[in-house]
Amino acid sequence: MLPWLLALTMLTATDCNAQFAPLMTGTYSGASRVPFWRKAEAGNWGGEGWLGWTRNGNALQSVRLIVRDRPKDEGHDEPLVTVESVPPVAFAIRCVLALRARAIQRASVTGTSLLRDRLLKLALGRRRYELRLDSAREDLTDAKVILSDGRVTQVLYSADGFADDPHFDVEWIGDLDGDGKLDLVVNLSRKYSAYPYRLLLSTRATRGQLVGDAAVFETAD
């Protein structure tokens, strides 16, 4: 690679922080169908450079997010912003270097809540995966979310001894980065009021892993 091109690539990678916008997490009020978020969470989402996809779509496409300040109303003391996606998508990412506009593949499962000791079988092309919530305790304090392809087994999340009405939700399953391997959007939390949405990509996996974290968005009640 030419020195100037290498320098430009490094500059782009270091100056652009990965952002993830799961756009179903917004709140609605009254007759307006424009969702809003806390400004601290989504205030810097505006502008170009985003790639987005829908739950049932087959393409990762360029999108623009329009962010506007929202007037305060009763019950909301924090600064708020509205966010609109053009065109409308369910998920948007920015500054994730493994991704570009392309056709994408999705698994037949588009969203599900994992249940204790219930196996979720996934097919992506010729590849087969299993996703399960393992727990020996009714209170789920020992819960682990485990992904396997029959050769490699990876713990995606562990409750680590604490659970307060937890949730283990898989929001999207497919191949987003074009390598034919499984990618996921998950919302795994040991507490009912915390919602950490994680974009997990196979191209971010390290040795002994199937996927690795590419971007995270966290919100809470």
Could you say which structural class the secondary elements and strand pairing correspond to?
A: mainly beta
Q: In which range does the helix fraction lie?
A: under 10%
The mean pLDDT is 90
Query: How is the biggest beta sheet arranged?
Result: 7 strands, antiparallel
| Rg from alpha-carbon coordinates | 19 Å
- Counting DSSP E segments of at least 2 residues, the number of strands comes to 17
**N-to-C span:** 48 Å
Tell me what the structure shows.
With 221 residues, the protein is mostly beta strands. The protein is built from two helices and 17 strands. Strands 1, 2, 3, 4, 5, 6 and 7 form a seven-stranded antiparallel sheet that branches. Strands 8, 9, 14, 15, 16 and 17 form a six-stranded antiparallel sheet that branches. β12 and β13 (153-158) form a beta hairpin. Mean pLDDT is 90; it is low at 1-14.
Offer a few descriptive terms.
221 residues; mainly beta; 2 domains; seven-stranded antiparallel β-sheet; 2 helices; globular
Give me the secondary-structure topology:
Elements: H1 3-15, E1 19-22, E2 36-38, H2 39-42, E3 47-53, E4 59-70, E5 80-86, E6 91-94, E7 102-103, E8 105-106, E9 112-113, E10 119-124, E11 127-134, E12 144-148, E13 153-158, E14 167-175, E15 183-189, E16 194-201, E17 212-220
Antiparallel strand pairs: 1-6, 2-5, 3-4, 3-6, 4-5, 4-7, 8-14, 9-14, 10-11, 11-12, 12-13, 14-15, 15-16, 16-17
